[in-house]
Automatic annotation (TrEMBL):
Primary role: Protein O-mannose kinase that specifically mediates phosphorylation at the 6-position of an O-mannose of the trisaccharide (N-acetylgalactosamine (GalNAc)-beta-1,3-N-acetylglucosamine (GlcNAc)-beta-1,4-mannose) to generate phosphorylated O-mannosyl trisaccharide (N-acetylgalactosamine-beta-1,3-N-acetylglucosamine-beta-1,4-(phosphate-6-)mannose). Phosphorylated O-mannosyl trisaccharide is a carbohydrate structure present in alpha-dystroglycan (DAG1), which is required for binding laminin G-like domain-containing extracellular proteins with high affinity.
UniProt KW ATP-binding keyword: yes
Enzyme's top EC category: transferase
Domain Protein kinase, residue spans: 81-350
Pfam families found in the cross-reference section: PK_Tyr_Ser-Thr
Species the sequence originates in: Bos taurus
Designated gene of the protein: POMK
Primary localisation category: endoplasmic reticulum
GO molecular function: ATP binding; carbohydrate kinase activity; phosphotransferase activity, alcohol group as acceptor; protein kinase activity
Catalytic activity: 3-O-[beta-D-GalNAc-(1->3)-beta-D-GlcNAc-(1->4)-alpha-D-Man]-L-Thr-[protein] + ATP = 3-O-[beta-D-GalNAc-(1->3)-beta-D-GlcNAc-(1->4)-(O-6-P-alpha-D-Man)]-Thr-[protein] + ADP + H(+)
SMART domains (alphabetical): S_TKc
GO CC, any one term: endoplasmic reticulum membrane
InterPro entries registered for this protein in UniProt: Kinase-like_dom_sf (IPR011009), POMK (IPR039318), Prot_kinase_dom (IPR000719), Ser-Thr/Tyr_kinase_cat_dom (IPR001245)
Protein name: Protein O-mannose kinase
């Protein structure tokens, strides 16, 4: 019996694509491949890549941004920045919490025309000293006397105790974190004393509250210098020293060489007041660090290990005081030592 193929089980014969459709599909595929290849070779122009903590001169980055953007211009400040409320006012500038592209920023405006030189000096310092130690400059407009900087909601360093009392930050209220803050403060002084511009003195530091107000506490619990209006330059080679202001200073917080040396019987005269150098900043380190260390468990042990370097900072003779770099090195050694000790004790308890 002759068998025949079961034609009923076969599906319909596949239809061939018209030549024109095939050609179009081939061309589309080639265009896709060409686009992908070109995309790897030619990238869209972007800002410079962010290096850890810094951008090229004239640029900034905020938060988790992976590229740097140019400082905002006058036109951008006028049209893109929206002031929300005043959050601070000093002798030189008034600060407004503002919004730029849905981000919170700090807009500073000149308080009064008589202090415009100080305002512009602060701007020049901000431009020249951009680093991990200084608040980020986002833009400025000299025509309008405005400066835009990154906003830090925790505010000035003077708010430290109130911040650490918040439930969100109580876990950071330890000697380790507090010593890190003190180390950060000394690192800023070391940066100023060896800055790209030369040796700068932190003059807005006539008392502890005033000193603390010059620094901001960041969200990751580090310190940045915020107020750069009074940073005179010392030049040891030429013998050029500084005087912080033109009025008489008082109290134990300022260095002895900053006090009027001719007694109460002789009225203060600015032109007779001797000048001094950056060692006046060193004198104040123990007092600022004592505030930062607070009175938590372990802080007295930290103070004990820092006793010798702090004693040297309080030398009546400025030249005998250590440099900020020497103090910073000591702080780092003490932090490492106490961390290692704490780690060893924890292992012994296991």
């Amino acid at each position: 019996m002759e068998t025949r193929p079961l034609e009923g089980r076969k599906g319909p014969a596949p239809r061939e694509l018209p030549p024109a459709v095939g050609l179009l599909l081939s061309m589309a595929l080639m265009n896709v491949l060409l686009y992908l290849c070109l995309d790897r070779l030619v990238t869209t122009p972007r800002g410079p890549a962010v290096q850890p903590g810094r951008c090229p001169p004239g640029h900034f980055s905020m938060g988790q941004a992976t590229t740097c953007s140019p400082w905002l211009s006058c036109e951008q400040l006028r049209t893109e920045v929206r002031p929300l409320k005043r959050v601070g006012e000093g002798a030189v500038k008034t600060v407004f919490l503002s919004e730029w592209k849905e981000r919170k920023v700090a807009l500073s405006r000149l308080t009064r025309p008589e202090v415009r030189d100080d305002f512009l000096h602060g701007l020049r310092m901000l431009q020249a000293l951009q680093s991990e130690h200084v608040v980020t400059l986002l833009g400025y407009c000299e025509d309008d006397d405005t400066i835009l900087t990154e906003y830090h909601p925790l505010g000035s360093l003077g708010n430290l105790e109130a911040t650490l009392n918040l439930a969100k930050y109580r876990s950071l209220n330890t000697w380790q974190h507090r010593l890190q803050l003190a180390l950060g403060y000394v690192a800023i002084l070391d940066f100023l004393h060896r800055s790209p511009l030369g040796t700068l003195v932190m003059c807005d530091s006539s008392d502890l509250p005033k000193t603390l107000s010059q620094y901001l506490l960041t969200a990751n619990f580090s310190i940045v210098l915020n107020d750069l209006d009074a940073l005179p330059l010392v030049n040891h080679s030429s013998g050029a020293l500084v005087k912080c202001g033109h009025r008489e200073l008082h109290g134990d917080f300022v260095a002895p060489e900053q006090l009027w040396p001719f007694g109460e019987d002789m009225p203060f005269q600015d032109d007779l007041m001797p000048a001094y150098d950056e060692k006046s900043d060193i004198w104040k380190i123990p007092d600022v660090s004592s505030f930062l260390l607070g009175h938590v468990e372990g802080s007295d042990m930290v103070r004990f290990h820092l006793f010798d370097i702090h004693k040297a900072c309080k030398s009546q003779v400025p030249a005998e005081r250590p440099t900020a770099q020497a103090v910073l090195d000591t702080y780092q050694k003490v932090l490492n030592l106490l961390r290692d000790t704490a780690t060893s004790q924890s292992r012994e308890m296991l």
